[in-house]
Specification:
about 260 residues, alpha+beta, 9 helices, 8 strands, globular
């Protein structure tokens, strides 16, 4: 055997480009090969990407315990029966979700413990309370009337964007705050930080009301769709002039199952 033939035998019989092309075609053909009954057996790229990101599936525990059941039943209600509620029910709602109680601390957080959010209770069909707007005083667990006696539900409903059904609710909580004062209190941190904290505080308070309502067979919803000018006009005689309304929480008996989560 000549030297040229020996060299040819020692040289690897590979052609990288053509080999790569044949291999790639085989991969594509295999990936597209139909499975049983023509089902697609293509690779699952999403699963691979999840694996690359280190996705860890957790065991889903059973929803046991009183709190878990309450959280599961929490809903937003927009259809109410025009039934009265008792003043004792309203008292328990306010005492549980907002009041300081014997511990002198409230059941929700507030930046620097300022508690800038004010709660005004608008009653219309509460047994034992004349229809009016009342300022709730958490430390005293008391109501201070801040409006003329009368049913203010229609005025409130007119100030919303799409909640005419508000006139059916026996009672509503109005959340408001002095946003300018809150911003001044936190002006060393960042512009607008105080206002942001007011919204967060309102959210924590709102969740308390949602959970209490779910636990007591009542319905509620956070109404944030308000016309600013109409809302200011509707509440001008009830609220401090520096306050802005953050939202309204109607409370009552729902008609049928609760609506959107």
């Amino acid at each position: 055997m000549g030297s040229r033939q020996r060299l040819r035998r020692l040289r690897p019989r590979t052609h990288p480009r053509r080999h790569h092309g044949r291999l790639r075609r085989r991969e594509l053909t295999s990936a597209r090969r139909p499975g049983v009954n023509g089902a697609d057996v293509s690779p699952q790229p999403h699963a691979e990407r999840h694996h690359d990101r280190g996705l860890i599936h957790l065991d889903r525990p059973p929803a046991d315990g009183a709190l878990a059941q309450t959280l599961k039943s929490r809903r937003s209600t927009k259809v109410f029966r025009p039934d009265h509620i008792d003043s004792g029910v309203l008292s328990r709602l306010l005492a549980t979700t907002i009041s300081t109680g014997s511990s002198r601390s409230r059941p929700y957080g507030s930046a620097h413990g300022r508690y800038d959010v004010l709660v005004t209770v608008v009653t219309a069909a509460v047994q034992g309370l004349p229809p009016a707007a009342y300022r709730y005083l958490p430390d005293e667990h008391a109501l201070l009337r801040c409006s003329e006696q009368g049913d203010h539900r229609a005025t409130l409903a007119y100030a919303t964007l799409d909640a005419a059904w508000l006139t059916q609710c026996p009672v509503a909580l109005i959340l408001s705050a002095d946003l300018a004062a809150a911003n001044r209190a936190f002006d060393t941190q960042q512009a607008g930080r105080g206002e942001r904290f007011c919204w967060l505080e309102a959210g924590l308070l709102t969740q308390n009301v949602y959970l209490w309502a779910a636990d007591n067979g009542l319905g509620t919803v956070f109404l944030g769709g308000l016309d600013p000018a109409k809302t200011q006009a509707a509440t001008a005689s009830w609220l401090p002039s520096s306050h802005s309304v953050l939202g309204v929480l109607p409370i009552g008996h729902s008609v049928g199952p609760a609506s959107t989560p």
